[in-house]
């Protein structure tokens, strides 16, 4: 298994911020989106949207589901590498988990900006408020898998609400 090497880093208040030159750091921060000084999770989710649009456009729902699975697995490796380099348990700059949860959410919407916006808002809502079991997963599953899994659960909540919207309002094809 490839492991990241410790590149030069700067410091913030609680953990070191490793260099983007390390592949695990580059992916964990979703190409630097997680380094946003305000709302890094939201920045990561926003940065995931154009990728999701392109994957859906080119490869359909199956392609986005496969990409979500791949990002989830890579995310475990990248989060493990980032946390090893930074010393943090679930550092804010790690946003590849938001990418996986956001993409999962967008697997059920049509390729229309209004539905992408709804999926974005709902995913962020559930990722921030962390209803059960999202919060339980966040508190109790440790390590890189724990970093990733609560965002998948938040994505599932968002999907359920999107399905309810479709049922009651009808989602255009």
User: What is the share of helical residues?
Assistant: 55-70%
Count the strands? 2
Instruction: List the helices and strands in order.
Output: EEHHHHHH
* Rounded mean pLDDT score: 90
Low-confidence stretches: 1-13
**Total individual domains:** 1
Strand order of the largest sheet: 1-2
Give the end-to-end Cα distance, rounded to a whole number of Å. Answer: 43 Å
Beta-strand content: under 5%
Oligomer: single chain
| Major β-sheet annotation | 2 strands, antiparallel
Q: Helical stretch count?
A: 6
Structure description:
This protein has one domain. Helix content is 66%, strand content 3%. The chain contains 6 helices and 2 strands. Strands 1-2 form a two-stranded antiparallel ribbon. It starts with 8 loop residues before the first strand and ends with a helix. Residues 1-13 have low confidence and may be disordered.
Keywords:
173 residues, 2 strands, globular
Please outline what is shown here.
The protein has about 170 residues and is mainly alpha-helical. The chain has helices spanning about 25-30, 40-85, 95-105, 115-130, 135-140, 145-170, and strands spanning about 10, 15-20.
Helices and strands in order, then pairings?
Blueprint: E1 9-11, E2 16-18, H1 23-28, H2 40-86, H3 96-106, H4 113-129, H5 134-140, H6 143-169
Helix pairs in contact: 2-3, 2-6, 3-4, 3-6, 4-6, 5-6
